[in-house]
Write a structure and sequence with these properties.
Length: 301
């Protein structure tokens, strides 16, 4: 058992040192450096040192523990919704997950050995560390997806207002999408990147309907899906896009106001736990303390 712990500890330290070396010592690609000087947002994910280091670790791990095609497609969709567009993102996420499954139990077993714990606790800590290594990346990924979807939802209202102005000013739908994406670059960067991808897909030859449906799949936001369905129907049946977008923008404002009212009503309920647990005992103590002290003095005589 001691030899096994020593080997696991040595492997974790060796992987950490190699990761730091690949992260720091790997030279930057010339194309990536030029793109970063023009616009930092144009840096390629595939050419970054962190991605290269992750791919080197991911390749043997994924060969040892392969992932099914269904699970890979599902994970790739979740990573797209989180903002990771690299085709190798699913493999890198799988490598990080497998590395944590091995590394965290090793560290916990090493700590248990140094603290001279019994053998049963070694197995408990190893199982707990494996569970943490398996669920921690998924939890962080879900939280990142939720935060990004919330930012896109809040940015959609401004995008609709700008689109109404652009369409009613005489621009076509493609030009309006391009203009709105450019205007939202500094205010709502997530919405800006998604609209930029829509414009790029249209430029390379995809139909506008397919590009818009890809937008709904990448974001996973219900309001985006409704907006895409509205644009597709308006474009297919030849109705006025400006009027349709204006009506949808008004309904979206109503929905946002209802969500804000719902959040404010939930806040009062959530405040009950800290109030009953922290504030009310202090108030009761301040009110009752003089009477209790007087009673103690009275009965002590």
């Amino acid at each position: 058992m001691l030899i096994f712990i020593i080997l696991l500890t040595f492997s974790c330290i060796a992987l950490t040192v190699m990761s730091v070396y690949w992260l720091i010592a790997t030279p930057t690609n010339v194309i990536t450096a030029r793109l970063e000087t023009i616009d930092p947002s144009l840096a390629l994910i595939e050419n970054s040192p962190l991605s290269a280091m992750t791919m080197r670790v991911a390749e043997p791990l994924n060969r040892f523990v392969p992932i099914s095609a269904i699970e890979a497609a599902k994970m790739q969709k979740q990573l797209l919704q989180a903002g990771y567009r690299s085709p190798d993102a699913a493999m890198a996420f799988r490598a990080i997950q497998l590395t944590l499954i091995v590394a965290i139990p090793s560290l916990m077993m090493t700590a248990a050995f140094l603290l001279d714990r019994p053998l049963n606790s070694f197995l408990v800590w190893a199982g707990l560390g494996a569970a943490i290594g398996f669920y921690l990346p998924r939890f962080l990924l879900r939280s990142k997806i939720t935060n990004r979807q919330q930012r896109i939802t809040w940015g959609l209202a401004d995008a609709l207002d700008l689109m109404v102005v652009a369409v009613e000013a005489g621009l076509g739908l493609n030009a309006a999408l391009n203009r709105v994406g450019a205007e939202l670059k500094n205010v709502h960067p997530d919405m800006h990147y998604e609209l930029e991808l829509v414009n790029l897909e249209i430029r390379v030859g995809r139909s506008r309907e397919e590009a818009l449906r890809n937008l709904a799949e990448r974001t996973g936001v219900d309001d985006i899906r409704s907006f895409v369905a509205l644009l597709v129907q308006a474009d297919r049946f030849g109705s006025s896009i400006g009027k349709a977008v204006r009506v949808f923008a008004e309904s979206l404002r109503t929905k946002r106001r209802q969500r804000a009212e719902q959040a404010s009503q939930k806040a009062a309920l959530r405040l009950l736990i800290p109030l009953t647990g922290f504030l009310f005992p202090v108030i009761i103590l301040v009110i009752m303390a003089p009477a209790v002290l007087n009673l103690i003095d009275l009965f002590s005589k």
